[in-house]
What does this fold into?
Amino acid sequence: MKLDLQFVRAQFPAFSEPSLNGWAFFENAGGSYPCIQVINRLTDFYMKNKVQPYYPYPASTKAGEMMDESYRSMAAYLNVEESEIHFGPSTTQNVYVLAHAMRPMWEEGDEIIVSCQDHEANAGAWRKLASQGINVIEWHVHQETGLLSLDDLEGLYSDRTKMVAFPHCSNVIGHINPVKEISQSTHKNGALAVVDGVGYAPHGFPNIKELEADIYLFSLYKTFGPHLGLMYVNKALIRKMENQSHFFKEGITKSMLTPAGPDHAQIGAAKGILDYFDAVYEHHFDQEANASQRNIALNTMFRKHEKALLEHLLEFLRSRDDVQIVGPDQTTGRLPIVSIIPRHKSIAKVYASLTEQKLMLGTGDFYAVRPLMDMAIPLEPGVMRISFVHYTSMEEINQLIAGLKNAL
Ligand SMILES: Cc1ncc(COP(=O)(O)O)c(C=O)c1O
It folds into this structure.
């Protein structure tokens, strides 16, 4: 099924916003445009239901219902249980809370493996456990390709390994890691798999059960939604963790990992992402399907569209000897997160030219400091990153290519 891009873009007010007219957006890995369904739910919540939820008066009951709908529909789309979904302020903060909740599960001298392909969100909080008696083992990336090797991982386990933290897809390398295979390997070695899905989820929500990860995190503000982090935590695992909320929340798993109390309105708005997915599904497909099946159909369609655009972009980049592609230069196993380094001009100069040509991109280290260090790429100026999602058009890719031809 071919994606009806006109229909898709009509769901995003940014594409009809006069001040953005003519600008092509390639910093989606930093944060995507929100869809209208999310904006409407957030506005509705603020206009009609901005009260403490779950009381029996109508405005409050409705607020609670809106929040419950988000838990329910997220769980259905991700193929996990509702009680396994937790919303926090961001992925960084969710991992921070997890590190505190999980430390008491481990003994002095136990080991955790932390990948060097991660954004610091899924690295820093774990690495800090070194000061609390945990041995932190680094899983380095290949210096040239930026890829993680499973063979390397096999060599890092010991009988004290408790956890492996790694990304589904790095926000600078763009390569998709085989999460299921890695999770199975960690389990075989008696350890837990903690997966940062922030880079991956904007390109299709994962079937989390299928991936066999124990913990999977992503950020809704990069998946067309409000500024929240979502984490899946296996329901048996959470009961082994230390409660991070008030003492009287002990045993109430919905609260144990959200010490600050969640942002009600944004949780209520989160279902808008799935309303958007449903609208796209209904526009393209006739068959009745459950949420997980709809998700698979949408992923296939989104990925096909993204891949055609990525192929065109990579073909152009490969044809140039004045630019280095960081990470794989083919579409296989890759998402449209492409970091590049100009060979003859400074990043600042190229970037300024692209901005003049109404192209919105990002530059720097993107908090992916460890992978850049492993690849010996100087953090200053870092890389220039091109990232797009399924709502991006071939016209925008051509605008980018034309812009790069002028700028490089
Ligand atoms: C791969 C990856 N992981 C984690 C994060 C951090 O997410 P948050 O801003 O929700 O803490 C980012 C943010 O850019 C990211 O790209």
